[in-house]
């Protein structure tokens, strides 16, 4: 795997002998953009049905994203962060986990928690600003998307410590962006995971931008994966537009974590085709050329080509899944819209296990 | 005179000061090339270059600490925290390190910093984007707290804040950025920090407010007028220092008051204002001073924001309670 590791300084010309250096890193790819297997050693073991399921989920996620943007424009959704382009990192990383592994998402990571079990209508409720969106069903091992960038990194660290203390063979995975890797919380989480040897996977989806700020202004580090070195955990870099590389890397990291080998930082190189959020104009900070270049690496196209060559997928399949996804989105948005509205009294009662007298009194203002 | 909305007035204040004083620096997340998520700094990097106006990596604690360090070196940082809820990440640097610099160094160093942050509800933003967190700031010794309610004041107050040698927490209400235009003078003028303004005269009751709530209070005052009640409305403009003299003078006239705030009811600015009224004007009161504020819950998800926030009807109701006491 394209793992970041220390090397002797002499290997680099000009380095002083007491300088610490890291080697260059190249992203792991299993599939070429043409859909050919270029790295058979890392080809994850997956049945034909599983391969089709992964494609199903990526196409579904793309359609859901497109519909969500429309619903947002119609005022039927609230806060929403587009995901198109990042289906491989999102769908692939979740697919590589067990259902009892735990997910701590950032605000863009709704697909992972939905595929891990959160009903879609609750994702819509969350977006519409309804508290029930966050009532995660029993047995679904996720937290709701985190708004404070970086906070979830520390939660995953704590959850992983919990697994370790209870001798459970589970891992916690958490996501952030390249921007999120600049927060203090990120370094603190990685360092704890190193110090306590925790079964955590820190997945950075490096989509090149934090809102408008490009990667080059975010850090002078050669890669995000390099940041693992200082924390004493594994750091790997993968092609985040290649769903098989994502699955290979996350499966490996999860295996290592479950077996006491500690944490991994995975940097997936990816791109968001759409704006940062609904109120953002990409033309102010991105070029058409760059967008075109990345759309050639579209994870759906690449994996679709691979499957088509195996006779597992066709354009008709894509059309069918799109239809299915549209219907599902319609059904779930209706369910979200029909959910009984929140009330201020209900909100007040959700603050404490037992509503204290001063809050009981405050309810009077809202009756 | 130019017509400006509050966002343009804020931008203009930064432009005036960047031009006037080479030590003024403007920075934060996304403030450079694009001019911030609200475009409050749009064009400033183009005009002043990217050493004076620049994007930082995504790290609020570092933004705050950078400002503290730069402040000791003679610079005057205007640091933007992109949305109010993200100040928690920077609390140590803003409310401990910046606010204590003068005290800890025996006056040798200070923190001539403005921390600008948008806040304020009613826009159905995501969680932690809108909370009114001024209560945290006013509990913090050593930092001034400014919350303008209109474009003219915003520009004049921000210029004062940038020239102030102490740290200023400058809160900009999201719902006021584009709400309306005002006559705003070109170039240089200041509105003093620590001076409230009576924005409507009245004799029956005083409504004390700041930020967007000034406008809500004015709406309530119009409603009250229909029932023959003359409400006086005070725009505090700054919470630290608090202009208690203007408040007391008004209460001497009206003998009744309420305080409106967007922040949750307990232990906030309203509670402090009422405590000071008790200390300085209790003998002029005909009724207890009441608060009109949201309940003590977290700022709710978007769905019930409107029901939760104070509105004109609730202000009227609170005023009627003090009138009927
Ligand atoms: C603590 C904190 N600071 C700032 C923000 C505002 N904000 C939301 S998204 C974002 C950029 C995030 O970029 P990145 O981590 O690269 O993730 P991406 O959106 O590209 O997936 C910023 C600055 C926030 N939500 N939380």
Task: Show the helix and strand layout.
The complex is a heterodimer of chains A (367) and B (325).
Chain A: E1 6-7, E2 21-22, H1 48-73, H2 87-95, E3 102-104, H3 110-115, H4 120-127, H5 151-165, E4 172-177, H6 184-196, E5 200-206, E6 209-210, E7 213-214, H7 215-218, H8 227-231, E8 234-239, H9 243-258, E9 264-269, H10 288-295, H11 299-309, H12 315-338, H13 344-349, H14 357-363
Chain B: E1 2-4, H1 6-20, E2 24-28, H2 44-48, E3 53-55, H3 60-72, E4 76-80, H4 91-104, E5 114-119, H5 134-138, E6 144-146, H6 151-163, E7 168-173, E8 182-184, E9 197-200, E10 205-209, H7 212-226, E11 231-235, E12 238-240, H8 244-254, E13 257-260, H9 269-281, E14 290-292, H10 305-308, H11 312-323
Parallel strand pairs in B: 2-3, 2-4, 4-5, 5-7, 6-7, 10-11, 10-13, 13-14
Antiparallel strand pairs in B: 1-8, 6-12, 9-11
Helix pairs in contact in B: 1-6, 3-4, 7-11, 8-9
Bound molecules: thiamine diphosphate (TPP).
Cofactor (chain B): thiamine diphosphate
Keywords (chain B): Oxidoreductase, Thiamine pyrophosphate
GO molecular function (chain B): oxidoreductase activity
